Amino acid sequence: MEHDEYELIKSAQQGDDNAFASLYKRYFDFVYKYLIKITMNTHLAEEITQEALTKCYINLNYYNGKAKFSTWLITIATNTYTDYLRKRKRERLFFWQKTEERSTNLQWHITNEGVEWSELMEGFSKLEDEYKMPLILKHYYGYSYDEVADILGVKEGTVKSRVHYGNQKLRKELR
Amino acid sequence: MNNKDSFYELNNKFKEIDHVIPNRTPSDFQISEIILEAKIKKQKKFYIELITFFIIAILTLATLLSVSIVMPIVIIASQILAFSVVPLVFIAYKRSNNAKERLVK
Fold it and tell me: Which end of chain B is more exposed for a tag (fewer CB within 10 A), N or C?
């Protein structure tokens, strides 16, 4: 961990709001862009990022420095998104959208910027969140199976099987 | 397309997404508003935890008091059980942890 970041975290834990504001600025886009890949929706990603960083402020004293601060934030963001899904499912709100429907938001955004929405992205957007999360964390962010298991709060074997089935499903979609 | 190719393409797409999607970092004013809101939530959470702690403590105390009046033997037996079983559980847990550490090394 960088010395500067360590100092910021320590100050924020002691109640320095300016230090927390600096951390907030530093990590907002990191969390936001992680959540875009999971939710495939910019509005939802922004909403959950704000909620996750609020949770980070409330629970900052529980951060013990064992994992990287970014990893800790990703864990909070993942949990916040999982809670959001659970809540929506429970409430059965009529505006609840399926993953594929949500992905059209991201598709619209990136095709507007001239980036092609490939078959692979289409296939990926159709995957269930439980497969998307380990795939992204393992292959894009480069976390080990052990770390992904800690982030998702499941066993290492579960992560391995989800990555495997996620791969299989993705290949099926591409056929 | 094999696994490696598909991951390579997917990673490239994600890099493009990261590049194309504009940053959304809130302004200083918005951040101070968010921190204020978070502070209120933190205070609320603290009071809820405090109240829950007191309620649980009062209920436990009341239960123990009524049990010790009606059946004091239950209290004595539970204390003996706790003093003998807890160290055993601790030793067993410590042993399994040591074994795991040896495996890792």
Answer: C
Question: Any chain B CB within 8 A of the CB of A154?
Answer: no
Q: Using a pLDDT cut of 90, give the percent of chain A over it.
A: 60
Tens digits of per-residue pLDDT, A57-87?
999 999 988 889 999 999 999 999 999 988 8
Distance from CA of B4 to the nearest CA of A (A): 10
In which residue ranges of chain B is pLDDT below 50?
104-105
Q: Please give the pLDDT value at position A92.
A: 65
Site of tokens 């003093």: B83
- Residue A165 has a pLDDT of 92
A24 in reach of chain B (CB within 8 A): yes
**Residue-range definition of the domain harbouring residue A133:** 118-175
Interface A-B: count of C-beta contacts within 8 A = 83
Between positions 44 and 103 of B, the ones with CB within 8 A of A are 45
Nearest to A171 by CA among A138, A139, A126, A133: A126
Tell me which of A94, A128, A148 is where a domain ends: A94
Average pLDDT of the residues of chain A: 88
Suggest the residue from A13, A36, A119, A120 to mutate for an interface test with chain B (most B CBs closer than 10 A): A120
- Predicted pLDDT of residue A105: 76
Task: Determine contact: B9 vs chain A, CB below 8 A.
Answer: yes
CATH code, A169: 1.10.10.10
How many domains does chain A fold into?
2
Cβ atoms of A59 and A19 within 8 Å: the answer is no
